[in-house]
Amino acid sequence: MKTLLIIVLAIVVLAIVIGAVMASKRRRVEKLRAKAEDHRGEARATSLEAAWKYAMIGGVGLSLALFGTILTYYSAYPVVGTDSVAGLNWSVLVKNASQFDKASMRIAFILILLGYGTKAGIAPMHTWKPDAYSEAPVPVAAMLAAAVLNCALYGLIRFNVLAAKCLGPQFGSQLLIFFGLLSIGVAVPFVLIQRSFRRLLAYSSIDHCGIMILGLGFGGAFGALGMLLHMTFHSVTKPLLFFCAGNIQQHLKTDLFRRAHGGLIYSMPVSGSMFLMGTLAVTGTAPFSIFQSEFTILRAAFERALFVPATLCVALLGAIFTGFLVHVAKLVLGADPGLPPAAVCRWKKYPLMGLGTLIVILGFWLPSPVFHLIQNAARIASGEP
After folding, report:
1. Is the pTM value of this prediction over 0.85?
2. Dihedral, 278, 279, 283, 285 alpha carbons, nearest 10
């Protein structure tokens, strides 16, 4: 996409569709929760609340992103000198970014970071994410984690290159490192005390969003490469966890850990084992692919002598790894609680096995054409000509 305005419009359309899908799920979720959880018969319209929260907070975020795009055009107008949409052509802007008005570009980048950061779920603009991820249908939740997150970060990458060429890399880098560490830090306590495995995945997504932002903030060739690798590997791993969580929720009729009795691997051997494997993969356990991308991001930090942010990142990720693994291990492993075996459905079984196989393969081998594509994208993201 060469025109920056198209990015905003595309995310607006996607947000409207997802909000409508979450709202349409309200009646079915109310009936399910009325039967399974609310013993007093008072159904809670949590899906409708999540849809409204997603629409309202997301709308504010998109408005900020659009305003930031307009300010970028304003800062570039004296240089580009056109009244048409061609003035937002990224290829033209990046060649002349060093001549932009610095004051307006500084404000524009802050608005862009807040706007696209809201869509990505960066703390403290993340409050829509746990509700949306836990209430949306599983395929939509997987799309939120794999597609919407990446689209928002893609827009942020584009504007970060312009800001770095105009203001120097230090301004954007400091903001990105701050928000990246804040996102990981906010996720830690909620992962440790979490009661719902669907919301656990939401806070895991906030954590990974922070890791990607850190990679962009650390900068350099390794920072951009690590971020794009992480975006790729996370987009494969997180859908597997959501599909497993959806199967488990349908079987247990709840997404609460306290209503599950452990030993899920006996009644759901495929979903249980894949959920445990996906947990190890998404928390960055070697030799899975996310370990490689996180290591590349940390390498970028040490290359720039950013030892304090790197150390904080490692400590926070260690806490998230511990909390996440303890929750899932208690759910999947343990003594057989005597639950009836889950109904065998190929649509619930083979996609999990396919994604699980792909995750294992990516841990040991990334096809050369894919890696070269990511490398070329990383060069652009790092601001190389």
Report:
1. yes
2. -70
